[in-house]
Amino acid sequence: MPEQIALPADATTIAARVPGGAFFGNGALSGQLSYRGLAGQRVLGRVNGQRFATGGPNAMDPPFHYAPSVLVESIDVARGVAPVSQGPSLAGAVNAQLFETDFGDSANWSPDLRFTSQYRSVDNSYAVGSMAGVSNEHWRFGVIASREEGDDYDFPGGTAVGTSFERNLYGMHAGFQTGAGELYIEYRRSATDPTGNPPFFLDIVFFDTDFVQGGFRGQIADDVQLTLRLGHVSIAHLMDNQTTRKPVAPPDRARATFADADTSTAELAVRFGQANSYIQIGADIELTDKFVTITNLFNDAFFLESQPNVQAERAGAFVQWRGGLGRAQFELGARIDSTKQTAGAPQIGATVPMGPRMLATAFAAADRETRQTTVDTVLRAWMPLGAITPRATLARKERVASLLERFGWLPTEASFGLADGNIYVGNLDLDPETGWIAELGFDLETDAFSLRPTAFYRRVDDFIQGVPFDDTIGVIDSPVEMIASMNGDPTPLRFGNVDAELFGVDLDFAVRPVDRIELSGTASFVRGKRRDVNDNLYRIPPANLRLSAAYQGDAFSFGAELFAAADQNDVSAFNGEQAAESFAVVGLFARYGLTEALAIETGVENLLDEFYQPHLAGRSRFGASDVPLFDRLPGPGRGVWARITGRF
């Protein structure tokens, strides 16, 4: 079927189209995936199978920031609960695979060229991505590159100022294979230039990021497969409120925050058996080192190390078995991880006021080292019964607090992308989150119809979210509250453990009533509640429905898509979350294949020019914008898009 949407710069919006998926709109390149009501570091995101820590303290660079849509080959989502072999993950796991040259099937060298180029009118953006490679049956070499740039986008009623973006990426990859397997290596450089982030206090000035990984994958003996992967990611980041912010902040509030993050990983797994009957054992290591310094562009003596050399060292091991008993199939896995987290003593400048100095001194005197052990277990069962396959999952999943949640000693708005205007402070005593999960569903597949519904329940003990800093809410009787009040929030939050639950149902379906016509769609509903108090969880997406109808011709295809979201009135009273209204938008799409290798695609988004504000959209903090201050960012207005794709 034809592609149904203009490729967004942020590939997270593509991943959010899966059942249960939703999207935190924090900027053109900073969206976060919400899956069944959980987001941020609770969802494992990877690019080319490589996991890494984000560079920005407010998650301006979530994993898919580094996956330009025009270079994405596929996005794989572990629906429901991620297998333990993929690493620790409280919610699902998602991997974006970029273009790579494949091996040939003979000794002769053959070229491999792929490209995508697109123009989108609603933000006057363009994107170009390509891969060029050569390969034979033993060797493969390839290079990739992309360039994206866009202006502020239009919506019915004006322009959302501060939403422009610019990003470049280039890289190379190579592989050598024999009968035993493949040795491979890859390198990429991602360079994000000034990009607006309206929901945040600061905007992206740059992200300069290097990815390198290599390893071996193959069969080393009969029914024995070995996978080895080594990787490193280095991120350098600057954000400020001067370069793209309109109006710019006055000198006394001018801020430039420098952040660095390095992640080194090693993974080893051995599998004994066949694809449908095996036992796999493995181990992995992840070392993370972060540094964040807040400065004033007009005062060299003003600086604070808000995350002073914070580090996490995780070592894990797992075992996973898959097999059958009659028609019934099972997958059982368990993993254990030990995570050590440490922080340095913060340095501060001579002109920093006394309040932050007192907090820095107290943090330096505290015990800034912790080690926690987490255990994950997953049991899946399914039974093919002709056209229908019932399935069930039981799991226990855990997540250690992030470095920001634990070591954020300075009260700031850094919240890993919540972008809610609240000021947060860390908590050295956070316990790991523990999720108890049950899922039940079935897959129905016939020539004319397919349906895959899943009902789920997730009970989370020690769920980490913002809670009142102390028992005297609104009474400024501590340095934290004094600093927060001076920055506009007299009721700061600290990250704390609460009890929560999430439950719901989601599905996808396709109907093929006649040859060449398909009706398809997804539907999602999730409810998130606190169990310790009478309140709802924060930033839970509303029920939504996606429907498309498409005609597939030999060369020409076309169709339409409807996306509708219900009201969201089950909001968090504690977080002051506002309800959201329902909306529905319609788009058109078409594709014409010039040849088997070359196609033109085009479409119209928001055909009826509907004004809508998604519940999970961030709130604008650009004063010189047609979006009022602290209003939810509206969705893009009506626009046309055109794309050329090819593979030779």
From TrEMBL:
InterPro entries: Beta-barrel_TonB, Beta-barrel_TonB_sf, Plug_dom, Plug_dom_sf, TonB-dep_rcpt-like. GO terms for biological process: siderophore transmembrane transport. The keyword Ribosomal protein does not apply. One of its GO terms (cellular component) is cell outer membrane. The keyword Electron transport does not apply. Its main location: membrane. It is found in: Cell outer membrane. Belongs to the TonB-dependent receptor family. This is TonB-dependent receptor.
